[in-house]
């Protein structure tokens, strides 16, 4: 863990524990490196920002797996029962490999265990009550802390909320709807923005054509022209760009792929934030940190049993997102749990918060990853305890969008002043 002390000790309110999500994003790095550009000067002045790496992540006994085995991951889109069986067998082999390299903590990387760790951190800090800021998957930590230790919370702000009550079909289809909605927002933006690389064209037709060419093996990675790109990789790249949203970047990438002649790749500069794959210049390592599925598959009972069930889920996902072809990230997350044991440490359930103070939920109306129905459902389950503040815009991060979203969090954390019910930014 790491603490960035309040910049103005005379105005200090207390500690603010933070988790930036993932699962797998280290909180120590957030507190040490990213907090100054993320939080306002007022929040930095009044709070000790305390980041921690959850178990299995970063410096907290990270989940490690064989790099060679990770590189052999099969397609998350099996075409028949035999390929489904190979996916399940691969996941079982990888799981045992990661357990062997990681040790006993691998079997206890679930969020409920992290919540208990967080209360141990509260005690170690000598605080009777804590404030907490959680983003994306970090909202699940906050929600479940409120369930278990609600009377130990001073204030809690959660942005880009996860709904941990969803079944497999609802989880996949709502995630797909979020991705498709962000694609539709991208198309509208491109039609109205002259700087878009696809402005003046039928953006949807260009996009669909690019994916169709990828299906035929006609498109290549602009940075590695010898390597063909799959439609899944292209959708995933755009999906990650929508997090920003970095629509100019997405449009330029699609336009460049559309202009490729068969077998030709051209240099394309991508941001270091979300490369499609590790740089080939990096030397191979015997093991790599890979905490995602160790956490995710112990938090969610998502276990399609056979190809027929899996294919039905995939078809429902594709119907919900025909242009994005489902939800590229969540589909792969669910695929990674195929073949895991049925027992789950922290299965889905409706939130039951009984002792916590008012909690502030913020969420973008057009979040590409977490559909707006998720915070709405969390709010319904906890109506007496939560206040939902929608941001009427796009992207995954919410706090720093504008003065409205930033002031809502800052005023609440510092003064416990909540926006009126029904407000929006």
Strand/helix succession: EEHHEEHHHEHEHHEEHHEHHHEHEH
- Compute the average pLDDT: 93
The assembly state of the depicted protein chains is single chain
Classify the helix fraction into a percent range: 40-55%
Overall geometry: globular
What percent of residues are in strands?
Answer: 5-15%
Question: How many domains, as an integer?
Answer: 2
| Spatial ordering of strands, largest sheet | 1-3-2-5-6-10-11
The structural class is: alpha/beta
What is Rg? 22 Å
**First-to-last CA distance:** 33 Å
Q: Care to count the β-strands?
A: 11
The largest sheet is: 7 strands, mixed
Instruction: Give the helix tally.
Output: 15
Pfam family, one: Abhydrolase_4
Keywords: Hydrolase, Signal
GO molecular function, one term: hydrolase activity
Family: Belongs to the peptidase S33 family.
What does it look like?
By secondary structure, this protein is an alpha/beta fold. It folds into 2 domains: 2-60 and 109-165 and 349-415, Rossmann fold (3-Layer(aba) Sandwich), CATH 3.40.50.1820; 64-107 and 168-348, no CATH class. Helices cover 44% and strands 13% of the residues. α14 links the parallel β10 (359-366) and β11 (386-394). α8 (203-215) packs across α10 (247-259). The chain is globular and about 65 Å long.
């Amino acid at each position: 863990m790491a603490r960035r002390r309040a910049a103005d000790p005379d105005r200090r309110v207390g500690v603010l524990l933070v988790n930036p999500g993932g699962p797998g994003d280290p909180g120590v790095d957030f507190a040490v490196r990213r907090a100054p550009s993320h939080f306002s000067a007022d929040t930095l002045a009044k709070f000790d920002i305390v980041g921690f790496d959850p178990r299995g992540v970063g410096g907290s006994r990270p989940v490690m797996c064989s790099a060679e085995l990770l590189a052999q991951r099969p397609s998350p889109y099996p075409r028949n029962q035999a390929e489904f069986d190979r996916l399940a067998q691969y996941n079982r082999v990888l799981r045992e490999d990661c357990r062997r390299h990681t040790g006993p903590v691998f079997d206890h990387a679930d969020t409920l265990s992290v919540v208990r760790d967080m209360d141990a951190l509260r005690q170690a800090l000598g605080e009777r009550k804590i404030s907490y800021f959680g983003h994306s998957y970090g909202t699940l930590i906050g929600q479940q802390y409120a369930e278990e230790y609600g009377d130990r919370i001073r204030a809690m702000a959660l942005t880009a909320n996860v709904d941990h009550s969803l079944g497999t079909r609802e989880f996949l289809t709502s995630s797909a709807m979020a991705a498709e909605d962000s694609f539709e927002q991208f198309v509208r933006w491109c039609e109205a923005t002259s700087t878009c690389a696809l402005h003046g064209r039928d953006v949807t037709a260009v996009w669909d054509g690019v994916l169709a060419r990828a299906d035929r093996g006609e498109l290549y990675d602009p940075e590695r022209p010898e390597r063909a790109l799959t439609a899944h990789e292209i959708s995933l790249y755009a999906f990650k760009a929508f997090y920003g949203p970095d629509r100019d970047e997405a449009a330029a990438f699609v336009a460049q792929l559309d202009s490729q002649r068969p077998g030709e790749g051209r240099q394309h500069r991508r941001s270091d934030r979300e490369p499609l794959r590790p740089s080939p210049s990096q030397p191979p390592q015997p093991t790599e940190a890979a905490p995602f599925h160790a956490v995710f598959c112990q938090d969610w009972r998502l276990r399609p049993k056979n190809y027929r069930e899996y294919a039905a889920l995939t078809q429902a996902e594709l119907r919900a997102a025909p242009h994005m072809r489902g939800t590229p990230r969540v589909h792969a997350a669910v695929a990674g749990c195929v073949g895991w044991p049925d027992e789950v440490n922290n299965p889905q359930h409706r939130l039951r918060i009984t002792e916590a103070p008012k909690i502030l939920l913020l969420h973008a109306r057009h979040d590409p990853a977490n559909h707006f129905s998720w915070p709405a459902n969390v709010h319904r389950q906890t109506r007496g305890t939560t206040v939902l503040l929608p941001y009427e815009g796009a992207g995954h991060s919410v706090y720093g969008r504008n003065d409205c979203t930033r002031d809502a969090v800052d005023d609440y954390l510092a003064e416990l002043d909540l926006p009126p019910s029904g407000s929006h930014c």
